[in-house]
Write a structure and sequence with these properties.
This protein is an alpha+beta fold. The chain has three helices and six strands. The strands form two sheets. Strands 1-4-5 form a three-stranded antiparallel beta sheet. Strands 2-6-3 form a three-stranded mixed beta sheet, with no helix packed on it. The radius of gyration is 35 Å and the shape is elongated.
């Protein structure tokens, strides 16, 4: 159904607005009012379109972030398994049980490869202490070590992409 405000004063056959001076003419101020309304509607439509585009982009970003958090949670759950396998490797080397060591090493390697493909990387512990990626559990004097340098790693730290999942737990030289 058409809006009676917009069709008043138009020629029913052509749909056009009659010119000034013709029979049933529309006053200039009515034409200006209709043009103003049209411009307001067009402006409103453009704003709505821009808001919808922003909403769509924001939703896509939030969805990607939620997917990243889901992957992060899975990798975080697998870290203790990786730690346990590393401890088993150390114990197997001490007891010289070659077959057990070889099996555990294969499992460790395959799990580590899966995690690397998922975006996991080990935090470097060479050099100085960085509070953004290291957690100092002890500070002790060490001969020949520069103060503030990492002297021992008690638990490896990991990143997933550019986010720190778990800081490296280290001993720092005083």
């Amino acid at each position: 159904m058409t809006d009676p405000k917009l069709t008043r004063g138009t020629d029913p056959e052509t749909g056009s607005v009659p010119r000034e001076g013709s029979e049933g003419s529309v006053p200039e101020d009515r034409i200006a009012e209709l043009e103003r309304e049209r411009d307001e509607y067009l402006d409103s439509l453009k704003r709505l379109k821009a808001e919808f585009d922003n909403f769509r982009k924001r939703t896509a970003r939030e969805s990607a972030a939620q997917s990243a958090r889901a992957g992060e949670a899975l990798v975080k759950e697998l870290l203790p398994v990786l730690d346990d396998l590393e401890r088993a490797l150390v114990a197997a080397e001490k007891h010289e049980e070659a077959k057990l060591e070889e099996g555990v090493r294969l499992v460790h390697r395959s799990l580590a490869d899966v995690l690397v493909r998922a975006g996991l990387s080990e935090i470097e512990t060479d050099g100085g202490f960085d509070p953004h990626v290291h957690e100092a559990l002890l500070a002790q004097p060490v001969e020949g070590a520069e103060p503030g340098s990492v002297v021992e790693v008690l638990q490896k730290g990991y990143r997933l992409g550019d986010r720190v999942l778990r800081p490296a737990r280290v001993v720092v030289a005083q």
